[in-house]
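Field: COMPLEX_INPUT
Field: COMPONENT_COUNT = two
Field: RESIDUE_TOTAL = 570
Field: MODE = joint
Values follow.
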Amino acid sequence: MKKKLGIGKAFLYTILVLYAIVTMIPFLWALSSSFKTLEEIVSGTISFIPKHFTLDNYKQIFIEQQMFPRWLFNSVIIAVTVTLLNLLFNSMAGYALARLQFPGKKSIFIIILAVLMIPAQVTMIPNYLILKQLGWLNSYQGMIVPTMINATFIFMMRQFFINFPKELEEAAALDGLSRIGTFFRIVLPLARPALAAQAIFVFMGSWNDFMRPLIVLSDPELFTLPLGLNSFKGQYISYWNYIMAASMVFTLPVLVIYIFFNRYFIKGISFTGGK
Amino acid sequence: MKKKAWREAGTGYLLLAPTLFVLLLFIIGPIVFAVFLAFHKVQLLGTSTFEFVGFDNFKRMAGDLRAKIALWNTVKYVVIVVPCQTMLALVLAATLNAGLKGQKFFRIVYFLPTLTSSAVLTLIFMWMYNQNGLINHLFHAIGLPTYNWLGDPKVALNAIMMMNIWSTAPFFMVIYLAALQDIPDSLYEAAELDGASAIQKFWYVTVPYLRPVTSFVVIMGLIGTFQLFDQSYIFSAGSGGPNNSTLTVVLLIYQYAFKTLGTMGYAAALAFVLAIIILIATLVQRRFSKEESLY
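Field: COMPLEX_OUTPUT
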């Protein structure tokens, strides 16, 4: 019996380790390629350790390709603004739908649920025409305003506030705080775990989005990183050493965020997916 | 009292104001607008013009060879990728949940692809798929045939499939992982008393218990795979090539809407059909899993 367990465990460990290798290889390969010389890249030899370790690729993309820092900046501005606005607006909406009584509340909630099921492709073309009409193509607001709320997280925040202890709010009301005051001073600070999970997902979604910037932005000055990276590939089509260095620069911020917020990540997913 | 009710309603609308604004201007308005567009021919030169054409846009699909290819590619992709990624996610989650050491470490490693942007992942894989690249070297080393992954129309879509199963499975794995923690130990203890092996326990306790979660994972998978765009766009530099082999429905919609003149209305009609296909696939899946759980 004991021996059998040992074999079973060894088998499970084998699966775990093998799959970890399968997951790591593309990243390690990209990382190692980003430190290789073009000579080594085109020679087609397979080695994870660069023969002549070089930082030239990174220098190249930051110095020769002056747009690169600009793309990084655009991505940061857009992702951070979108995240902050989402946190604020989704919580406000979730709170109103969970706690306040007003005519039309039920219909608004049903509409928000229904919106969850509409694929983005349906609204993509009209959205483009509306942004064009507003003169918001090629602008930060064209990227930010349409994504500053998210039906999924409004729904999530509503569930969160419904389960929130009412006594705290009642106490605040007795102390003379208005509804809005209670929301901002008492409720929102206590919603931190839910907000953290939401922040990560919204940030990642905006940071990694490819389709919206592709449609909204056409001026290279305003490109976000995914778009910049794609145009970069077109420019340096066979310079895989540069392309890999650029990819690594792009991935690093997300990795850092992930390592910091790892806890909330898993929680956030189980919150949205579990039940 | 009445004043209080009024004030509460006012506060409610105030808190909802940004949401309603975006909802009306960028979601509900566009849905209505999309229906309008699907029945019009749209010209964007200078001032936009809309000419009513009835069902012409929908009729046009029947004779559009590229639309058929795109639909066929997308369906093939969905049918292969969804079951593969679901099974892989389940196996990985069960393995991670077996109480082994180092789970935390493996969890972090496994989750990496989900974090990384599709643009970066696609570029990394294109680099590995190079004819003289890492994947062909690995395949050669273990005695498998090598391919021209990027250039051969017969394998290009498979290359995207492999990449996507690899990158999406970990996300669903985490969902399974959360659900696995809810399974009561008593179920396993009872199975053990009946002399069930580890594999039997997995098959007769774990899998049936997870059925609702599996249903959720499959629906999310369907919705995601039907919308495949980034990977095939970057892979083929926007063309859907080689020889239309990576052309997906969404990529085709994008091309008709933004890359050719005068076909925006047709693209809107295609987007509509795609939405309906996704809706039907989701309903069929629901029906299917409900019937199963009756037993």
